Amino acid sequence: MQSKPKAVVLLSGGLDSATVLAIARAEGFEPYALSFRYGQRHEVELAAAERVAKALGAVRHAVVDIDLRQFGGSALTDDIAVPHDGASGDEIPVTYVPARNTIFLSFGLAYAETLGAWDVFIGASSVDYSGYPDCRPEFIEAYEAMANLATKQTVSGERRLGIRAPLMHLSKAQTIQRGLDLGVDYSLTHSCYDPAPDGTSCGSCDSCRLRDRGFAELGLTDPARRP
Amino acid sequence: MQSKPKAVVLLSGGLDSATVLAIARAEGFEPYALSFRYGQRHEVELAAAERVAKALGAVRHAVVDIDLRQFGGSALTDDIAVPHDGASGDEIPVTYVPARNTIFLSFGLAYAETLGAWDVFIGASSVDYSGYPDCRPEFIEAYEAMANLATKQTVSGERRLGIRAPLMHLSKAQTIQRGLDLGVDYSLTHSCYDPAPDGTSCGSCDSCRLRDRGFAELGLTDPARRP
Fold first, then answer.
1. Which residues of B touch A145 (CB under 8 A)?
2. Residues 6+ apart with CB under 8 A from A156
3. Residues of B numbered 136-165 whose beta carbons fall under 8 angstroms of chain A's beta carbons: which are they?
4. DSSP structure string for A69-131
5. Residue in B62, B96, B143 nearest the CB of A152
6. Which candidate, B34, B22, B218, B195, places its Cα nearest to that of B113?
7. Percent of chain A with pLDDT over 90
8. In a domain, A227, yes or no
9. Distance between the two ends of chain B, CA-based, in angstroms?
10. Which residue from A103, A105, A113 is facing B107, i.e. has the nearest CB?
11. Does A114 reach chain B within 8 Å, measured CB to CB?
């Protein structure tokens, strides 16, 4: 019996990446989850990542420490207030973290190479999203092109490395439906940018709102902890 | 008087990146040096980076902690012996660190964005090098294309972000000559992959050999510390 191919899955502990982990497994991969402790305010999401990795059968869950606070410039890592007014408009919001997905994917690429994996999954979506540039399909495509020139593994040319973003064209409701079909328990996930010290979600930040709307469209209530 | 443009300079403390820092300054940039503590055996290079940053007038020298040892797979970070036989041949050597330049450039991109810098300098060269895939011009070009889709700064489109590799087509001797013309004191730099505990270079690893040959071609002796 041939062993399953390995895949790296970037796992924040939120709704999207939990769904992606379930998708990777359903596609027949042995998923290796990768999370980051990057000075995020909402570090409670790492506990969620651990619960999700376990529940959805990740073979291993690696957590890499990196300090993005050194550079500053984001409400997710600095003393900048997370907005709760829902008025994001057309601008890229203050919750944007400089080059975050580029950095995360770069560690994913390193991990893939040491595992011998040819697929790196990320929960990026350009529908119902916060307007971050590094969630758009053109970014993912350019990253994949670069990655295939970057490592010993890709240069050997056995096959192409794929940056897989299966949620790219799904709405939040479609993502949730896909996850429910695959048995994801969303009560284990955490999405809030500005949780209470006990991990309770605020219900009013951009991330909570997008999530709420997704469940509402399906006629469901978000099982995440609320005040 | 207009203030100088800022540039991020990836600085390992070795011969190449010291030269690049001098070039960035000579081109009229205010250089912000960026180094990494990544579990390298030759951590003595960080002390060299600090000396070089000071001597060559970096405005600031940031050191980011990242742990590449988690993934393993390199003689520079693991308990794999650094080769001293000079027999590298056509293969990518064991001193290759998975996705290292991709990761370093990604932090450089984040730093550039928070500084408002449009240039990121790296000492990559495809002449007299160790055969690492992430030192080739096609990699740098693909990285630059990706970077220009990745961040809030680049998406705003004020101008393009440049990944600058001014040593790309220079031999080691040409690099040294360029640095000497710009007043670089190479006795401050450290290149050895396998130094003694007191920081003395081995003189026989790939990095020491390339460096030696460069100085020899110019009829000079490497001023680095030797046994």
1. 142, 145-146
2. none
3. 136, 138-139, 142-143, 145-147, 149-155
4. GGT---TTTSS-PPP-S---TTSPPTT--TTHHHHHHHHHHHHHHHHT--EEE----SSS---
5. B96
6. B34
7. 57
8. no
9. 50
10. A103
11. yes
Local structure of residue A64 (DSSP, 8 states): E
Residues sharing a CB contact under 8 Å with residue A84, sequence separation 6 or more, in sequence order: A194, A202, A204, A205
Mean pLDDT over A77-103 rounds to 69
Domain that holds residue B57: 6-217
All residues of chain B having their beta carbon less than 8 Å from the beta carbon of residue A38 are: none
Residue B201 belongs to a domain: yes
Nearest 5 degrees, angle CA A37-CA A40-CA A46? 50
Is there a domain that residue B225 lies in? Answer: no
Average pLDDT over residues A133-154: 93
| Within a domain: A224 | no
**CATH code for position A87:** 3.40.50.620
When pLDDT is cut at 50, 70 and 90, the band that residue B86 belongs to is: low
The pTM of the full predicted model, rounded to 2 decimals, is 0.90
Phi, psi angles (nearest 5°) of residue B226: -125, 155
Nearest to A150 among B64, B99, B147 (CB): B99
Dist CA A10 CA A32 (whole Å): 9
Give tens-digit pLDDT for A75-86: 566 665 667 766
Neighbours of B58 (CB within 10 A): 22
- Could you give the dihedral angle defined by the CA atoms of residues A51, A52, A54 and A56, in that order, rounded to the nearest 10 degrees? 160
d(CA B153, CA B142): 18
Q: What are A150's two structure tokens?
A: 């970057």
- Going by C-alpha positions, the residue among A58, A57, A44 that lies closest to residue A12 is A44
* Domains held by chain A: number: 1
Rounded Cα distance between B195 and B42, Å, is 6
In sequence order, which residues have a C-beta less than 8 Å from that of residue A53 and are 6 or more positions away?
A: A11, A21, A33, A35, A61
